[in-house]
Amino acid sequence: MASRTHLQMVQTYQCPGCLYTPEGESPKSCGKFEEMPYTNACAGHVMGTMIAGQGSLALGMPVGFNKLQLPCQGRDEKMQTGPRRASTLTPFFYDSKESFNFPFNHLNVPVWYKQEGEDFFLKIFHPRLGTHSLCVIRGADKSLIPESFTVFDVAEFEDEID
Questions:
Q1: First to last CA, the chain
Q2: Is the pLDDT of residue 73 over 50?
Q3: Element (H, E) at 11
Q4: For strand 119-126 and strand 109-116, is the pairing parallel, antiparallel, or unpaired?
């Protein structure tokens, strides 16, 4: 069952722009909310905003973390149906830095971060899969990332991101 913090994160970062959630309503009132295992995100979420030639946009996410990764040939064909359809960005929501459990190594490389209030956004690249994960961690900061990794603060160049 989703915690109060996880529901608040879904409402703040996934519900804006979702096809199913009227503005200002809670995730549970849309009729499509279903907690996705391991991510604490909404499995029923569908991004309702598209930019021609660029794909879908997650309106609730900050710049640098709001674009859907375009599918890779082969591997992502099976993702076109089911809970992770092509119009869905699935973040991992963590209600505390203690609950964050991604191991950083050569298979999980942190690349971008941004601090927004008490929430820490982190993009992690998975070179073996050619994909990335988006994590939103409540109460965390850059100290979560080992110094052996060079990670870029999106706030320093977000005006360059289209």
A1: 36
A2: no
A3: helix 4-13
A4: antiparallel
